[in-house]
Amino acid sequence: MSMSIKKGDKVEVLSGKDRGKQGVVLRALPSEGKVVVEGVAVAKKAVKPTQGNQGGIVPTEMPIDASNVNLVCPACGKRTRVGHEAGELDGHKTKLRVCKKCGHKF
């Protein structure tokens, strides 16, 4: 299973309690088909104290299914589906992602 969403992409949530929120992908989990988005699906977890931290109840982002988010195009700023096109990036042949609305390659 391949995902067109990568770490650092800006995405918008399509469904669930956080519908309409935008955030940056902190982690992509392609083997599970999930992504962790900043400020979305926040749960409170109890953390034991260690030498490095104080412990207590800490808010953490939980993974959500990649099908519930859409990429936000860096050029036009709209949420979009992603197409793929062969091209060159930094002198290397690669598969580029393309915005279906404005045609921007990234």
UniProtKB/TrEMBL annotation:
<dbReference type="InterPro" id="IPR008991">
    <property type="entry name" value="Translation_prot_SH3-like_sf"/>
</dbReference>
<dbReference type="InterPro" id="IPR005825">
    <property type="entry name" value="Ribosomal_uL24_CS"/>
</dbReference>
<dbReference type="GO" id="GO:0006412">
    <property type="term" value="P:translation"/>
</dbReference>
<dbReference type="GO" id="GO:0003735">
    <property type="term" value="F:structural constituent of ribosome"/>
</dbReference>
<dbReference type="GO" id="GO:0019843">
    <property type="term" value="F:rRNA binding"/>
</dbReference>
<feature type="domain" description="KOW">
    <location>
        <begin position="4"/>
        <end position="31"/>
    </location>
</feature>
<dbReference type="Pfam" id="PF00467">
    <property type="entry name" value="KOW"/>
</dbReference>
<dbReference type="InterPro" id="IPR014722">
    <property type="entry name" value="Rib_uL2_dom2"/>
</dbReference>
<dbReference type="InterPro" id="IPR041988">
    <property type="entry name" value="Ribosomal_uL24_KOW"/>
</dbReference>
<comment type="similarity">
    <text>Belongs to the universal ribosomal protein uL24 family.</text>
</comment>
<dbReference type="GO" id="GO:0005840">
    <property type="term" value="C:ribosome"/>
</dbReference>
<comment type="function">
    <text>One of the proteins that surrounds the polypeptide exit tunnel on the outside of the subunit.</text>
</comment>
<dbReference type="InterPro" id="IPR003256">
    <property type="entry name" value="Ribosomal_uL24"/>
</dbReference>
<comment type="function">
    <text>One of two assembly initiator proteins, it binds directly to the 5'-end of the 23S rRNA, where it nucleates assembly of the 50S subunit.</text>
</comment>
<dbReference type="GO" id="GO:1990904">
    <property type="term" value="C:ribonucleoprotein complex"/>
</dbReference>
<keyword id="KW-0694">RNA-binding</keyword>
<dbReference type="InterPro" id="IPR005824">
    <property type="entry name" value="KOW"/>
</dbReference>
<keyword id="KW-0699">rRNA-binding</keyword>
<protein>
    <recommendedName>
        <fullName>Large ribosomal subunit protein uL24</fullName>
    </recommendedName>
</protein>
<comment type="subunit">
    <text>Part of the 50S ribosomal subunit.</text>
</comment>
<dbReference type="Pfam" id="PF17136">
    <property type="entry name" value="ribosomal_L24"/>
</dbReference>
<keyword id="KW-0687">Ribonucleoprotein</keyword>
<dbReference type="InterPro" id="IPR057264">
    <property type="entry name" value="Ribosomal_uL24_C"/>
</dbReference>
<keyword id="KW-0689">Ribosomal protein</keyword>
